[in-house]
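Many introductory courses stop at the sequence. We go one step further.
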Amino acid sequence: MLGAFVRAFRTPDLRNKLLFTIFILTVFRIGSVVPAPGVDSAAIKQCLQNVQAADESGIYSLVNLFSGGALLQLAVFATGIMPYITASIILNLLTVVIPRLESLKKEGQAGQSKITQYTRYLTLGLAVLQATSIIAMARTGQLFQGSCQPAQYMPDQSIPTLVTMVLTMTAGTCIVMWFGELITERGVGNGMSLLIFASIVAAFPSSIMRIWEEQSEWVFALIIVAGLILIAGVVFIEQAQRRIPVQYAKRMVGRRMYGGSSTYIPLKVNQAGVIPVIFASSLLYLPQLAIGLIGQDSNHPVVKFLSTYFNPNGTHPVYMATFFVLIVGFAFFYVAITFNPTEVADNMKKYGGFIPAIRPGRPTAEYLDYVLTRLTTPGSLYLGLIALLPMMALGASGANASFPFGGTSILIMVGVGLDTVKQIESHLQQRNYEGFLR
């Protein structure tokens, strides 16, 4: 594998792509630690020391994860790439509901460019809302769970300063979105995915060091071994797929013969990726938002119920069961809207393709739907179990940081890593070089 890396850097165009990607990721990480105007960075560090698990159990834990810890530092890139992810998910869902968006999606590159532009506009609006929410929580002390006073890390809380902070974080989101598009166009891999990957990996060493400092050597070794086994299992599941054979009949077009070839439709076990986990996590933040609006100290029965069963730490069995059910449900829902068996069957019939022993048309669509349902069932259960690992570790050890191998982070790291390696391998194979995956 090291030899393949050497060959990759010896190839001029691939070397330029890799160096450009590394440069953008470096600038992104620098912006994740630069504080926004009006923020005392020294006081922020002191607050983070007082709240050991603030970045793991807070209401904005997913945003903080995708920003590489920039959220709790109130940095320029505090909102990170999360507004763009949310906007992309919303546009994908609306494509099924709104006929105009569905027609744009079928227009090819021109229609996709318009959908991308709509995604940018929606990202800008979501970034303003999210930045305003972050500043409001920081101003009231809820961002750090009341561990330190807002006057310590935000000495100037005048309206112009707060507006400047919101505009700075919004501009940071736009810059991060631009970085992702630059990597996709001129670098290697999917830009947005690599930015999330870099954010998660940046926080990984500190989690490992925290384990080393808080746990014994045997526990540390056990966690590392369990993490490696888990990564190997995730790689195995992410690579698993069911290949549906497809044959194309021969047909004459003018004086040329077309068709007569055989191929396959690859259906992955985890067809939905990490999207169901993000959906479920976002939905389970709503109870905490309701508690924040009503008031933590309120004697309202709804607040008591949400505080007991849907606490931010997520250790209650009701919370874990709800989280698991939501992930399974969203997995089936997302696969249903992203893969249309009827459309695939119609396209195959149009070009003379058929599945052996299956009649074209409606029987083919029913067969694809049957296979997809059987694949999605174990895939959704797998997603739910992986997402619950940090919560189970928290309930068993009492420290969420004691098990960094799990949940959304491990799924993203493995998925993005495999996709990037495959793209580098494809560049090497074009020059008859031996790739990473043998």
